[in-house]
Amino acid sequence: MDENETTYDPSRYDRPSVTADIVIFTLRAKQLQVLLIQRKGWPFAGHWAIPGGFVQMNESLEDAARRELQEETGVQSAYLEQLHAFGDPGRDPRTRVITVAYTALVSSDRLTLRADTDAADADWFPIDALPVPLAFDHDRILSCALRALRRRLEDSNIARELLPARFTLTQLQEVYEALLGRPLDKRNFRKWILTLGLVAPTDQEARGHHRPALLYEFAPPVESGDTSRFLWTRRTRRKEQ
């Protein structure tokens, strides 16, 4: 029988649950750290996990991710990008659950950390000192998010989330080194970052104990919109030329 708006029966089909998990990165003490919550109940009681929750029937995936971000950190607006969907049938012992993972990058001075009702605790962990194994398949999700973040650094301006509006090239290099997890040659870094065209010099200098250093700012985005201001890349610029 052909289905139409009057004969369609949704109970004839299995309906997996859907969750949104958010890998929330920040810099603390010049270290790249990730927010984890400690699960209170079954399954994986006592294990640490990536924050997340079930998508409600009346919200989009991104709305669910932003709701979880605000509930866990108090941040309403931040760099947020969909990462990947994870749907192995046995990933959640409760039922068939497909999760859509997101990556968030938030400045630590904007955070108000709090554990949700289903969590025993919430804390920041350096990316190289995680309480593994994490719950569910969150080790895999976190590894995927870290690789994507580091790839995005190559030609985008997402580092702006971790810097003041105006900054020195030394400050910018420190952020890149923390996110990449390795030191960078000063001369090569400055040549590379200026070639990208993502930052522009200002007419101001930073003054302190050392000689004055020129302040830079991120170049304005080419496109308007909720996410383009974070994800402007040189590929986008070439399209505009």
What does this structure look like?
This protein has 241 residues and is of the alpha+beta class. It folds into 2 domains: 10-151, Nucleoside Triphosphate Pyrophosphohydrolase (Alpha-Beta Complex), CATH 3.90.79; 154-240, Winged helix-like DNA-binding domain superfamily/Winged helix DNA-binding domain (Arc Repressor Mutant, subunit A, Orthogonal Bundle). It is 26% helix and 27% strand. It has 6 helices and 9 strands. It has helices spanning 61-73, 138-152, 169-180, 186-196, 228-231, 234-240, and strands spanning 17-28, 31-39, 48-49, 52-54, 79-86, 97-105, 119-126, 199-206, 213-218. The strands form 2 sheets. Strands 1, 2, 3, 4, 5, 6 and 7 form a 7-stranded mixed sheet that branches. The longest helix has 15 residues, at 138-152. The chain is elongated. The chain starts with 16 loop residues before the first strand and ends with a helix. The relative contact order is 0.15. Residues 224-241 have low confidence and may be disordered.
Taken from the alpha-carbon principal axes, the silhouette is elongated
Using only C-alpha atoms, the radius of gyration works out to 21 Å
**Count of β-strands:** 9
Question: What percent of the residues sit in helical stretches (DSSP H or I)?
Answer: 25-40%
Cα(first) to Cα(last) distance is 55 Å
- The tally of structural domains comes to 2
